[in-house]
From TrEMBL:
<feature type="domain" description="Histone-binding protein RBBP4-like N-terminal">
    <location>
        <begin position="43"/>
        <end position="109"/>
    </location>
</feature>
<dbReference type="Pfam" id="PF00400">
    <property type="entry name" value="WD40"/>
</dbReference>
<dbReference type="InterPro" id="IPR022052">
    <property type="entry name" value="Histone-bd_RBBP4-like_N"/>
</dbReference>
<feature type="compositionally biased region" description="Basic residues">
    <location>
        <begin position="1"/>
        <end position="13"/>
    </location>
</feature>
<feature type="region of interest" description="Disordered">
    <location>
        <begin position="114"/>
        <end position="158"/>
    </location>
</feature>
<keyword id="KW-0677">Repeat</keyword>
<keyword id="KW-0539">Nucleus</keyword>
<dbReference type="Pfam" id="PF12265">
    <property type="entry name" value="CAF1C_H4-bd"/>
</dbReference>
<dbReference type="GO" id="GO:0005730">
    <property type="term" value="C:nucleolus"/>
</dbReference>
<dbReference type="GO" id="GO:0042254">
    <property type="term" value="P:ribosome biogenesis"/>
</dbReference>
<dbReference type="InterPro" id="IPR015943">
    <property type="entry name" value="WD40/YVTN_repeat-like_dom_sf"/>
</dbReference>
<feature type="repeat" description="WD">
    <location>
        <begin position="364"/>
        <end position="398"/>
    </location>
</feature>
<dbReference type="InterPro" id="IPR036322">
    <property type="entry name" value="WD40_repeat_dom_sf"/>
</dbReference>
<dbReference type="InterPro" id="IPR019775">
    <property type="entry name" value="WD40_repeat_CS"/>
</dbReference>
<feature type="region of interest" description="Disordered">
    <location>
        <begin position="1"/>
        <end position="31"/>
    </location>
</feature>
<feature type="compositionally biased region" description="Acidic residues">
    <location>
        <begin position="135"/>
        <end position="157"/>
    </location>
</feature>
<dbReference type="InterPro" id="IPR051972">
    <property type="entry name" value="Glutamate-rich_WD_repeat"/>
</dbReference>
Length: 465
């Protein structure tokens, strides 16, 4: 984001015309806006659509606090546009009975105009490097000539297909089982965790081509949950094990954690609570490699590592933040790395081999509001993303280091130079959504990200990720 002057200043009862503002120097560079910076009268944030390969938004009848992306049958990794993705989301409706789980397919996610132009330029450059100018063959590959730019830049319109499943109570968190994506768990504000089989809804969406049938988007279907467990209070922490199929963990606002074990009868046996935290358990993450190990984050400012073979106490514990720890994420590529985000707006990265010493290996105090989500990239071990109530989604690459001379050499005359207090590991910032709650990387589409906020769901792919 850069900012520039714009709009008209307003005042009460002016008696004389305002003084003309001095002309801006044409060579003056724009300034970079950071969260918390003050905005002067008449200043606006300038959106740059050229930094997205893909950008789409969608809304449901009600806001959503949580969603999950479903692994699908379309293969991985996939990069060719247009894309199709499947997801499940939970609503926060005006009344308990108006809530539902939304099982969604989004298809025809196409290249942005800017991305299409970048692709064409890259193909021309490749052809020129191979010994030709690339003018004719490249135009044929794109589907038009330079004189047909309107057709060339035409974007596909993403199409939303929805099946709604009735759900009593607002949905605080929803998670899909990685081994069986049609099995979904929901955490409700009624203090109930429920497990659902959404295979029928997913099968309908997979077979649905073209525009959705009339009436299919609005109807709310009644489905009985496969299993229901009532905690002593409501909660938010919920995670399926990526190693032990069907194993689930849930944590509540009274500091209790339950581990669910699947049974042969298609139900779950919910164990007695793990106790140790002194305040609400906000998030849980199973180890990506060890089936008995999981991490927890709490309002008591700690992160704890548990082993299901020793329920009486945590194996490790560290005071992780100076405020509530809201979220944690376990690196699935470098499995001794854990990331955490707190109410203090700080992102921290931990080496589990040194967790007992209480020293983090990275600390970024960039956000100006509580961090609401953190997640490591599934295919790039050094990359992760955070979302925050400051309405920012930030992508980080821990492998990046600042080189001021290279930055100055590569920066166009009209581009803003990075301020000294901008972390060099900050790779991309997405904004434009209000009260951002949760983000996820798509597990099968490289670079595709989805975020949910009070005003809808954003689906996008940054050009540099």
């Amino acid at each position: 984001m850069v900012r520039k002057k714009g709009g008209v200043k307003k005042g009460k009862g002016p008696t004389r015309p305002p003084k003309p503002e001095p002309m801006e120097d044409a060579a003056q560079k724009p300034s970079v806006w950071l969260p918390g910076d003050a905005m002067e009268d008449g200043e606006t944030l300038q959106y740059d659509p050229t930094v997205y390969d893909c950008m789409s938004t969608l809304t449901l009848d009600w806001p959503s606090l949580s969603f999950d992306l479903l692994r699908d049958h379309l293969g991985a990794p996939r990069t060719a546009f247009p894309h199709t993705l499947f997801m499940v989301s939970g609503t926060q409706a005006a009344t308990a009975k108006q809530n539902y789980l939304a099982v969604m397919k989004v298809d025809h996610l196409g290249h942005s105009k800017a991305a299409a132009r970048r692709q064409k330029e890259a193909e021309k450059a490749a052809a020129a490097a191979a010994g030709g100018d690339g003018s004719d063959s490249d135009d044929d590959m794109i589907g038009g000539s330079d004189d047909d730019s309107d057709a060339e830049d035409e974007e596909e319109t993403a199409q939303l297909h929805v099946r709604k499943v009735a759900h009593t109570g607002g949905i605080n968190r929803v998670r899909s089982c990685p081994q069986q994506p049609h099995i979904v768990a929901s955490w409700a504000d009624t203090a109930q965790v429920q497990v659902w089989d959404l295979s029928t809804q997913l099968a309908e969406l997979k077979d649905e081509a073209g525009a959705p049938p009339a009436g299919s988007q609005g109807k709310v279907h009644k489905v009985n949950a496969r299993h229901v467990h009532t905690h002593s209070s409501e909660g938010y922490a919920l995670d399926w094990s990526p190693v032990a199929a069907g194993r689930l963990a849930s944590g509540d606002c009274r500091a209790r954690i339950h581990v669910w074990e699947p049974t042969q009868a298609g139900k779950w046996a919910v164990g007695s609570p793990y106790k140790g935290h002194e305040a609400s358990v906000e998030d849980l993450q199973w180890s990506p490699t060890e089936e008995t190990v999981f991490a927890s984050a709490s309002v008591d400012k700690t992160i704890r590592i548990w082993d299901t073979r020793e329920q009486s106490k945590a194996m490790l514990s560290v005071k992780a933040h100076d405020a509530d720890v809201n979220v944690v994420s376990w690196n699935r590529s470098t499995t001794y790395m854990l990331a955490s985000g707190g109410d203090d707006g700080v992102l921290r990265v931990w080496d589990l081999r040194q967790l007992a010493e209480g020293a983090f290996v990275a600390n970024f105090a960039y956000h100006r509001g509580p961090i609401t989500s953190v997640e490591w990239c599934p295919y790039e071990a050094s990359m992760l993303a955070t979302s925050s109530s400051d309405n920012q989604l930030a992508v980080w690459d821990l492998a990046l280091e600042r080189d001021p001379e290279e930055e100055a050499a590569l920066a166009p005359e009209s581009n803003a130079l990075a301020p000294d207090n901008l972390p060099p590991q900050l790779l991309f910032v997405h904004s434009g959504q209000t009260d951002m709650k949760e983000m996820h990387w798509h597990p099968q589409i490289n670079g595709m990200m989805v975020s949910t906020a009070a005003d809808g769901i954003g689906i996008f792919k940054p050009y540099n990720v």
